[in-house]
Automatic annotation (TrEMBL):
SUPFAM superfamilies, per the entry: Winged helix' DNA-binding domain
Protein name stated in the entry: Transcriptional regulator
Xref: Gene3D superfamilies: Winged helix-like DNA-binding domain superfamily/Winged helix DNA-binding domain
Annotated coiled-coil segments of the chain: none
Species this chain originates from: Haloferax mediterranei (strain ATCC 33500 / DSM 1411 / JCM 8866 / NBRC 14739 / NCIMB 2177 / R-4) (Halobacterium mediterranei)
């Protein structure tokens, strides 16, 4: 289950990988040239995405390795499961905001003071509305609305991780950390319907439980309102 979860996050973090997996999910298999033509992507982007996905065992080559023409690709069982997670409901409205319009401005201020340049983004997730605060313009430019919706939907999906862990004697986790490419994303539940995603540089070395306590303490007023 964790492999599918990690793979879903990897697919969701790139529009090229997402488009390739969507095509393969809908058509069963595909040639790089056909995928490129039908997704309106440049073939080098498609070829690179297929290579990346194959390295992660999300996609497999369906013809012999020695065959140079007609190289047909398809999703692996892991890839099919991971893409199902990515394709979950993405109807929540996503809004990029400045600190004053974030549901808990005090939290933004404290996180900036505490974690400085390690901080990449903070996302407040409710069932029909999501607020995103980026901490650099260049980072905000990397993510279009569809990509943000996909990432939020994937990373807040409870079924993928929390329920299996809840069956263990230790009980369900009260926070979960994901490593996606060069980013660490920490998911912190605030109540039954509200979750916080805090994105940091992967080299982040502060104790994660301290981050959780800071977030939970500073969001009480926003939840009550």
């Amino acid at each position: 289950m964790t492999d599918a979860w990690d793979s879903a996050g990897y697919i969701a973090s790139s529009r090229y990988r997402r488009a390739v997996c969507r095509y393969l999910s809908e058509h069963g298999s595909g040639l790089p040239s056909r995928i490129a033509a039908e997704t309106n992507l440049a073939q080098p982007h498609v070829s690179r995405a297929l290579s990346e996905l194959r390295e992660r065992e999300i996609v497999e080559l369906l013809v012999p390795e020695s065959q140079q023409k007609g190289r047909l690709y398809g999703l692996t069982d892991l890839g099919e499961l991971a893409y199902e997670r990515v394709a979950l409901d993405q109807e929540a409205e996503v809004t990029v905001v400045d600190p004053g319009n974030f549901p808990s401005p005090e939290l933004i201020e404290e996180l900036e003071l505490s974690y400085g340049d390690s901080l990449r983004a903070v996302v407040w997730c409710e069932p029909v509305q999501t607020w995103v605060r980026f901490f650099s313009p260049s980072l905000a430019d990397r993510y279009d609305e569809e990509t943000m919706k996909t990432l939020v939907s994937t990373l807040t999906n409870e079924e993928a991780l929390d329920e299996p862990l809840a069956e263990l004697s230790i009980g369900a986790p009260d926070l979960v950390a994901f490593a996606i490419e060069e980013t660490l994303v920490v998911r912190i539940p605030l109540d039954d319907e509200v979750k916080l995603l805090v994105s940091l540089d992967v080299e982040f070395d502060t104790v994660i439980s301290d981050l959780r306590e800071t977030c939970q303490q500073l969001t009480t007023m926003a939840l009550d309102s």
